Amino acid sequence: MNTEKDPKLVEKEEVGNPPAEDILSAKLKEPLPQKKARPVIFYIVVMFAVALFLIILSFFMQQRNHEALMQGISTSALNVQSIVDLEMEKNDLEDSLATTKTDLETAKAKEESLQAEVNASKDSLRALEYLGEARISHLSGKDKEARKQLALLKEGDLYQRLPETSALEGQPSPRQHYDELVNALS
Questions:
Q1: What is the dihedral of CA 61, 63, 69, 70, to 10 degrees?
Q2: Is the CB of residue 123 less than 8 Å from the CB of residue 161?
Q3: Crossing angle for the helix pair 34-139 and 174-185, nearest 10 degrees?
Q4: Residues 172/160, Cβ–Cβ less than 8 Å
Q5: Helices (H), ranges, the chain
Q6: Which candidate, 122, 130, 121, places its Cα nearest to that of 159?
């Protein structure tokens, strides 16, 4: 280890130069030259621009997601509204069907009633025809033929279909004619 000082340094110290420590502290106190400050400012501006770009990009991505979500919600709302409309239409159709079934049952009952009336009228007409032929046969002196006609009336209980009132006022009913004819032929 050489403890001797460099002769050049010793000379400088002797000449009246301040020591190295003083030079170092003076340099630290000096402002940085403009050339070194520019890259730092440029770096800060670039970092701020990148951060701003990322914020704007994030905003637009969020807007896009929000619009897609709102579109999905509106589509769901339309689907729900369609389902509600279909349910209401279904209920209306069910009510209409119930009304139609009731009307159909009423019409069937009315048809059965009318059919029973038609059948009764047919039976009554046949009974009147048999009675008429029996009367004509009796009046013609063909009592055997008249008894045959009365037997046909009795056989199918058609005599019960003979009206008990006359269509002509003051005249005997077909049922009374039947009873008279039976008595006459007995």
A1: -160
A2: yes
A3: 40
A4: no
A5: 7-15, 20-29, 34-139, 143-155, 174-185
A6: 130
Tokens coding 74:
């509106």
Q: What angle do CA 156, 161, 162 make, to 5 degrees?
A: 120
What's the rounded Cα separation, in Å, for the pair 58 and 50? 12
The token pair at 23 is 């030079």
141 backbone φψ class: left, alpha, beta (φ>0; ψ -120 to 50): left
Query: Model confidence over 167-182: pLDDT tens digits?
Result: 778 778 888 888 888 8
pLDDT of residue 159: 74
Tens of pLDDT, residue by residue over 85-137, are: 999 999 999 999 999 999 999 999 999 999 999 988 888 888 888 788 888 88
Question: Taking the CB of residue 41, how many other CB atoms lie within 10 A of it?
Answer: 9
Structure tokens at 124: 């009554």
Cα distance between residue 110 and residue 105, in whole Å: 8
Neighbours of 178 (CB within 10 A): 22
Residue type, 82: S
